[in-house]
Amino acid sequence: MYTYTGDGMETRPSVQLVDREHELSILADLLKDAAEGRSSIALMTGPTGSGKTQLMQTFCKRAEEHHATVLTAVASPAERSIPLGVMDQLFRSEALPREFRHRVGELLTEELSTSRVRDPILANQPSIAVAHGLRSILWELGRRGPVVMSIDDLQFADGPSLQMLLFLQRRTKASRTLLLLAEAPTIRSPHPVFHAELFRQPNCHKIRLEMFTRVSTHAMIRARLGPAKAMELTDAYHEASGGSPLFLSALLDDHEAAHRTLTGFHRSEPAVPDEAFRNALTGCLFLAGPAVLEVACTVAAMEAEGTSPASIAHILGRNTATVEHAIATLTATGVLRSGRFRHPAARTAVLEQVPPDRRHELHLRVATVLQNEGAPPVAVAEQLVAANRAPEGWMINVLREAARTELAAGRTETAGEYLKLALTYGTDGRQLGALIADRMRLDWRTSPLRAMRHTPWLKDAMRRGHLSGQDSALLIRSLLWHGRYAEAREALTLWEEDEARSHGFPSEELSTFHRWVGYTHPSLVAAPEAAPVPGTWAEGRQRAGGTPVLGSRACVRPVRSSGRKAINELARLLAQGPDDDTLTTTEGVLHSVGLGDGTFESLHAALLALLCADHPDKAATWSEELLKVAAQHGATCWQAVFAAVRAEAALRQGDMTTAVRHGEAALAHLSPTGWGVALGSPLATLILAHTHLGQYEQAAQYVRLPLPDVLFDSRYGLHYLHARGQFHLSRNRPGAALADFESCGRLMEEWGIDLPSLVPWRGGAAEALLTLGHGSRARLLVEEQLGHPGNNLPRARGASLRILAAASDPSDRPTLLHQAVRLLHPDVGRFELARTMSDLADAYRESGDPAQARTMADRAAGMLRSCRVATEWEQPSAVPGPVHPPEPGPVPVEEGPDGAELLTEAERRVAELAAVGATNRAIGRKLYITTSTVEQHLTRVYRKLNVSRRGDLALRLNIVPAGAESA
């Protein structure tokens, strides 16, 4: 098998004739029969691209080499209407001797000039005179040697030529002729009579060409690119070509072309199909006929949804049988597999050859049919985006629904495309309001600042009454996040008035929103006119001295949504404290509700409820899971919020380094400006964690960050005030600390969310008061905290008992601290437990029980190490009580330079605390060292600084005494 190169020489094996030896052998035998006077007919069939043309050309070349006269013709759709067009090609061949060509010319010219070819009845009937003339020529040629008449693409041949062929075959059975025909399958046979007559001939032989096997594909690549490349590329190219020799050859052409431009560059993966492949594919489809081409274009348009013949038939207005045959043809040709294109490049090439207007119209028809068949909104929306049009109202709704589906799956870019198209064609006011709200939700996931660009349109839509309750809540939440309280209050009033007009009472959505506002931005909520019904959150708030929310339960629809349960549970918990059902209810929400735009606030509320119900371990676990889901969605805002919760959970557990890590991650996901008033949450955690770690400069950096004034109109301001108070307390500024704690307390009482497990402001205030020497006031605050709702929780009660012990008589301290230790658990309050153990060690020491003191001190030190807090670092711990142990007496001093630079770091810390009036016992608790160690440090300090009493320390260290501090 060789390829003819134009100069009559055989140069290289024909790579396209791999695996065709059997067919060539059959044709060679038929040629031999013809040479011996037994004429034959060979009809080659096979899918387009299976190599029929190449096989015919190779055989004809070999026949010429065996001195056969070869007459060739190629039928064409463009010449199908020309009578005897194929016969004219066949008998005017250059291979025909000159004298025969002259005779053929006379015969055909006369026939074509007669009126019979224009008569529809006579047109397909061959002229007897012409037929006999051509028969005579074939007989004469046969005397010189065998004659091969080769006709390719027989399916496009004209009727008169086919009738002439049948006439000749019936009269030349004993001649030396071989009629070689090649035909591609069509949906319906264009020449059924011809085929019936042809197949009746006893000397007719059918030869079917099959597609390449993998072995054949390997052999072809090996012949073109060598054995190494054949090993690398066979699987990929066999799959992409579908075994089609035509497509495989084109792929190899593209591969060679791509690598010719990359000299010395070697790659094992196949090159991307390019020009040769596209040309081969489109040529194959055009030859297959208009029906096959239309079906291919429609399959390409709806590739993502698969190919239902009935759907395609509906789209094209054709019958299902025609479509099924076309799909079968495309599959046999190697274009499709299981109704889909084998290679994305094939789909692209098919769509590219369709003019844009027609392509858009096709996608629009596909969208309509898919919608009528009940296809998922995303499938319909993909077609609308491809059509770049959505002219009908139902299309806008489909695009919006599809966008929500994509958002739920985390595919924000696709959702944005759907919303953009919907907004381009949307005209209805309510529809546009809903679309803009969806666009805001999409932007909010990654940038709350960018999302605010939509507020002018949403505010206008709300004034016109075009926003749903859900979208109204979105707008108000967005305004509140950025501290725009006046606008939020106006919007909330509009929503309430609209609900009153529409229903006469608050909807479920509005009722839940009021509860959310009540604990997140309590300053926004107004008091109702009617007294609250017992058992409601409003009633609980009123009992707590705060401002009640809305009216009675009778005017509120019951909340059924699992997501809303979390908001309601947190609101109830903040007013009344947790109960036995809190954990079950909250975790039930977390188990049953997936993360999405409509559930984010509910899940956040559930995590906060776990924290306030003294389950930081569970809050940590759930926030970790939600962080993963938020990352999968690419929602950086969600990641920031859940990281802040995770940081607070770690802080409550006592894991300070984890709290810092997640707190910093929260600020990395969103800038301080992007956080809005919610910035108070991660800042509070970072200030407290760094303070507990003794990293005061880092804590001070967060304290110095500029904050919006409206921060203190939100719950986030409470956390921040408490954290800043603790920082001031640790830096020996009890007056400033007390101011922050009392400000926090006033707001919590005013807002009716005075829950110690949320923010234990009384405990902090009591510590500050003790430092300032107001023991009685401190004790009253702690006792009030112990009697408050929610203080039965182990962590909150244990912390309260620790502070109460500091404000109590020394003889009562061991009992109170022992109770606190029994209450506290490492999983939910490791750091608080360590502080309490340290205080208990001091209490044992002062009560004359050094053995228990050492044991408890060791346990406290180990607990601190597990908190990743160095025991020698200064900590915000229990504060001085009313009893002062004796101070060490003066000792002889050594000569040396003056100043704090003479002291070690440990000595300096002890000296500074002593200078501001802290007792030895208080210093020991604060620095987590024993009282005897404090005394040893002070002895060395007195000696180095050449002082004999505490009163001189402040002057030598340049420290302002506690009594001089302004509160």
Describe this structure in words.
This protein has 967 residues and is mainly alpha-helical. The protein is elongated, with a radius of gyration of 45 Å. 62% of the residues lie in helices and 4% in strands. Residues 1-15, 264-268, 526-560, 871-898 and 962-967 have low confidence and may be disordered. The strands form 3 sheets. The protein has a 5-stranded parallel beta sheet with strand order 4-5-6-3-7, with helices on both faces. It has a two-stranded antiparallel ribbon with strand order 1-2.
Could you give a quick summary of the protein structure above?
The protein has 967 residues and is mostly helical. Helix content is 62%, strand content 4%.
Tell me the number of helical segments per DSSP (H or I, 4 or more residues long): 47
Average pLDDT, rounded to a whole number, is 83
- Rg (CA only): 45 Å
Straight-line N-to-C gap = 104 Å
Structural class: mainly alpha
Range of strand content:
under 5%
Number of separate strands? 9
Low-confidence stretches: 1-15, 264-268, 526-560, 871-898, 962-967
Approximate helicity band: 55-70%
- Largest beta sheet: strand ordering: 4-5-6-3-7
List keywords for this structure.
single chain; 967 residues; mainly alpha; 5-stranded parallel β-sheet; two-stranded antiparallel sheet; 47 helices; 62% helix
Write the layout of secondary structure elements.
Blueprint: E1 2-4, E2 10-13, H1 21-35, E3 40-45, H2 52-65, E4 69-74, H3 85-91, H4 98-113, H5 128-144, E5 147-152, H6 159-171, E6 177-183, H7 192-200, E7 204-208, H8 214-225, H9 227-241, H10 245-260, H11 275-288, H12 290-301, H13 309-316, H14 320-333, E8 336-337, E9 340-341, H15 344-352, H16 356-372, H17 377-387, H18 393-408, H19 412-425, H20 429-444, H21 448-451, H22 455-463, H23 469-481, H24 485-502, H25 508-520, H26 537-543, H27 562-576, H28 582-592, H29 600-612, H30 616-633, H31 636-653, H32 656-669, H33 672-675, H34 680-692, H35 696-703, H36 715-730, H37 734-751, H38 761-771, H39 775-786, H40 794-806, H41 813-823, H42 826-846, H43 850-866, H44 905-915, H45 920-927, H46 931-945, H47 953-957
Parallel strand pairs: 3-6, 3-7, 4-5, 5-6
Antiparallel strand pairs: 1-2, 8-9
Helix pairs in contact: 4-5, 5-6, 8-9, 8-10, 9-10, 10-11, 11-12, 11-15, 12-14, 12-15, 13-14, 13-16, 16-17, 17-18, 18-19, 18-20, 19-20, 20-22, 22-23, 23-24, 25-27, 26-27, 27-28, 27-29, 28-29, 29-30, 29-31, 30-31, 31-32, 31-34, 32-34, 34-35, 34-36, 36-37, 36-38, 37-38, 38-39, 38-40, 39-40, 40-41, ...
